[in-house]
């Protein structure tokens, strides 16, 4: 059975990594508490991003759930532009978690190809077994299809939401089906602007965060949408919305109208 036939609104495969994922991921950066992380894991959330802010609460949840380690796709991030600091960052993170590897090392915000010194440092971490796959995030969308044609990067993080839909033009149509990379969407709420921007017409219903996640996941090109919960209530809301499935045509049209109104220059 191929990856596309295995995909559903809730479940998919993270591109050529071959890893099965719930399509709702969870990021540590916004302060989600330990109990809420564990509740998300119990619900099947397994793309776990201990990234920009490596919070203690998130780390504690990962330590508590060590017995389920093989279920997780653990993502560690480095923004370092110094190759020598990348191994230190990964090693210190793994020590704190008491894990022996991460599935994904995410290089943060590269709007051009990472230089050879950075890639070489990452390859050495793969050779040591400390990371399994390399990824980078970018706002330079056309860079992704070019980078995906190479062999080093298996996953890409890209901004995609109802306000910023450029990935539909610059990324999704340009990825070959064979050895397709994993695609992860961030800023589903457009940094909360979709939740109440002044440009949203009064005639339109204001979206919730759950509506924003469902908008992103209604596009089958996206493998995972990141949830930036900061409270247990936020996590519960995301999980409840996720279970509702994709938006229908009317809801998609509404979200696009709202996004277009916000984007208007």
Could you explain the architecture of this structure?
This protein has helices at residues 3-6, 34-42, 56-64, 85-97, 116-127, 143-148, 167-170, 209-217, 232-242, 249-263, and strands at residues 11-13, 20-22, 24-27, 47-50, 73-78, 102-107, 131-138, 153-159, 182-186, 224-227. The termini are far apart. Helix 2 packs across helix 3 (56-64), helix 2 (34-42) runs parallel beside helix 9 (232-242) and helix 8 (209-217) crosses helix 9. By secondary structure, it is of the alpha/beta class. Helices cover 35% and strands 19% of the residues. It has one domain: Alpha-Beta Barrel (TIM Barrel), CATH 3.20.20.100.
CATH superfamily: NADP-dependent oxidoreductase domain
- Poorly predicted ranges: 1-5
Sum up the overall morphology in one term: globular
- Helix count equals 10
Mean pLDDT, as a whole number? 95
* Secondary-structure element order, N to C: HEEEHEHEHEHEHEHEHEHH
